[in-house]
Structure formats: structure tokens, C-alpha cells
Amino acid sequence: MSDSLTSHLAQLEQQRVDALLTVDTARFDALHDPAYELCNPTGTVWGKAAYLRRLTTGQLAYSQLDTTSEIDVLASETLAVLRYRCLIALRVDGTDIPTHECQHIDIYIRAADGQWRCRCSQATGIMGATIPAAAQ
């Protein structure tokens, strides 16, 4: 795997996270595979359309998604696995979820058009990693 591919995939992941924070629907669509699925920390799985609908209606709103580690990349010609930690704060169905740390694993595939897109994501909360409000 080349350093340029590793760097490119890490940049795509940063762009994807930014699209979630800003609810940039065009970038969201471009960076997620049509069959994309998110398994959130509660174990609930949302497909691409359901995830985007939650973002655009405000049912889900991220206020923080800050990477706290390097983005580890393991890639072949058509498949890549990215893993990193981040601080996350969000509002889900009107309930604020305080800042906490999560481990993220994202799987990217290289589509027939040559573009890399996120196919699935798994976010796992790290037990005991809630960040006190004074430290935020």
C-alpha cells in the first residue's frame, strides 16, 4: 500500500466527517456507497437514506467529531479499513449525548468508477470515556 493511498483515504474520511458535521448532503452522497450502513454505539443499524434523513431533519445532529488519534489505514486495491478514535457529541431525537470518546472503524470500497466510498461504519463507545463539561 502506498503512502499516497493511505493519505488519500485518511483525507476522504476527514471530508466524510466534515460532511456529517455540516450536513453537506452532496458530499455525504458522494462519499457514501449506495449500500452504506452505520452501526451506531447502541447497535442500531441505519442505511444511507435513513442516516441522511436523520441528519437533514435534525433528528441526529453532531456538534463535535474530533479525531483524537492517527487514522490507521489497511488497504488493498479495492478495499480499505480505517480505524481511529474520536471525541463525539451529538443530539439524538431531542436528547443531548455528552462528549464521549468512540472507536471508529470504516470500510471503504473502490467503486467501478474508481472512486473510494465508505461502505460501512461501526462506532463503539469507549466505556468510562465521557468528558466532563468543564474539560470540553
- Helix fraction? 25-40%
The Rg value, from CA coordinates, equals: 15 Å
The level-1 CATH class: Alpha Beta
Biggest sheet details: 7 strands, mixed
Strand content: over 45%
Number of strands: 7
CATH topology: Nuclear Transport Factor 2, Chain: A
Pattern of helices and strands: HHEEHEEEEE
Secondary-structure arrangement, i.e. CATH architecture: Roll
What is the straight-line distance between the termini?
37 Å
- The average pLDDT score comes to 92
What form results from the Cα inertia axes? Answer: globular
Specify the structural class: alpha+beta
Runs in which pLDDT lies below 50 for 5 or more consecutive residues are none
Domains counted in the coordinates: how many?
1
Number of helix segments? 3
